[in-house]
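To the wet lab folks,

You asked to see what we're planning to order before we commit. Fair enough. Below is the target structure as C-alpha cells, and below that is the sequence we designed to fit it. If anything looks off to you, flag it before the synthesis order goes out.
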C-alpha cells in the first residue's frame, strides 16, 4: 500500500533538504580532485528529482539546501558560510538560479500533463454519453444519472441533479453553450470569483428552442473555478440527454 499523499510530500521535502547535505559532505572528502562544475551538476540532479515530485516547496528546498551546503563544504573558506573566490560565488549563485528555473520548468510540465489528462477524461465522458444515447438501450433516468455524475466531476461541484422543464427562477444563474455564466443581465466572472457558491447554477437541456429540462449544479463545500473549456464540456454533456429526455 502506498503512503498517503501528505507523507510522500513530507518525505520529498526531507529528502530535498538532506540529500544535498549528504552529497556535499561526501564531495568534501575529495574536493581537491573534484572541480566545482561537476559538484554543481550533481546538486542540480537532486533539484530535478525534488521538482519532479510536483511539489514546488521540495524543489525550492533542494535548490536552497544545495546552495547552502555547496558554500559550506566546497568553497573556501571551508566549513564557513562565506565565499571569497569570485568563481565560487558565481558557481553558488548559478546553482541556486538553475535550481529555481528547473523547479518551475518541472512544475510547468506537471501542469501541462494534468491538463492533457483532464482533456482526455472530458472526451471520454462525452463519448461515453454519446455512445449510450446512440445505443438507445439505456433508460432516460439512468442516462441522466450518468451524465449528472460526469458534470459534477468536470465542474468540481458537490451535487448535480436533473429537473424537467425550463428554468423558472430568475435568481438561478445559467451556464450557456459558450461557457459563460449569467444571472439575468449580469455575467458572472467565473475565472475570478468562481461558480456561485451555495447557490444553484442551471444547465439547460434541449434541442433548438425547445427546453426539455435542466441540470442544477451546486458547490457547497468549496468554491470551484472551472475553466471555460470545462464549462463548455459540461454543457455538451448535458446536451447528450436531450433526445432521451424528450422521448421519455
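Sequence we intend to order:
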Amino acid at each position: 500500500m502506498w503512503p498517503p499523499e501528505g507523507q510522500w510530500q513530507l518525505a520529498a521535502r526531507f529528502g530535498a533538504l538532506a540529500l544535498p547535505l549528504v552529497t556535499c559532505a561526501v564531495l568534501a572528502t575529495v574536493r581537491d580532485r573534484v572541480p566545482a562544475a561537476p559538484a554543481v551538476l550533481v546538486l542540480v540532479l537532486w533539484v530535478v528529482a525534488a521538482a519532479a515530485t510536483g511539489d514546488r516547496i521540495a524543489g525550492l528546498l533542494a535548490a536552497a539546501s544545495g546552495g547552502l551546503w555547496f558554500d559550506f563544504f566546497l568553497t573556501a573558506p571551508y566549513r564557513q558560510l562565506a565565499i571569497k573566490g569570485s568563481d565560487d560565488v558565481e558557481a553558488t549563485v548559478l546553482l541556486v538560479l538553475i535550481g529555481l528555473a528547473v523547479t518551475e520548468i518541472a512544475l510547468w510540465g506537471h501542469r501541462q500533463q494534468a491538463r492533457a489528462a483532464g482533456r482526455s477524461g472530458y472526451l471520454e465522458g462525452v463519448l461515453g454519453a454519446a455512445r449510450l444515447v446512440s445505443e438507445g438501450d439505456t433508460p432516460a433516468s439512468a442516462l441522466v444519472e450518468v451524465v449528472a455524475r460526469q458534470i459534477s466531476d468536470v465542474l468540481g461541484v458537490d451535487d448535480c441533479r436533473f429537473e424537467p422543464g425550463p428554468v423558472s427562477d430568475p435568481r438561478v444563474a445559467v451556464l450557456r453553450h459558450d461557457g459563460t455564466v449569467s444571472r439575468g443581465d449580469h455575467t458572472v466572472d467565473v475565472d475570478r470569483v468562481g461558480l456561485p457558491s451555495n447557490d444553484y447554477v442551471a444547465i439547460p437541456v434541449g434541442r433548438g428552442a425547445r427546453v426539455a429540462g435542466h441540470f442544477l449544479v451546486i458547490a457547497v463545500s468549496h468554491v470551484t473555478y472551472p475553466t471555460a473549456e470545462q464549462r463548455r464540456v459540461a454543457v455538451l454533456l448535458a446536451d447528450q440527454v436531450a433526445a432521451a429526455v424528450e422521448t421519455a
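Structural context that might help your review: The radius of gyration is 27 Å. The longest strand covers residues 210-218.

Thanks,
Computational group
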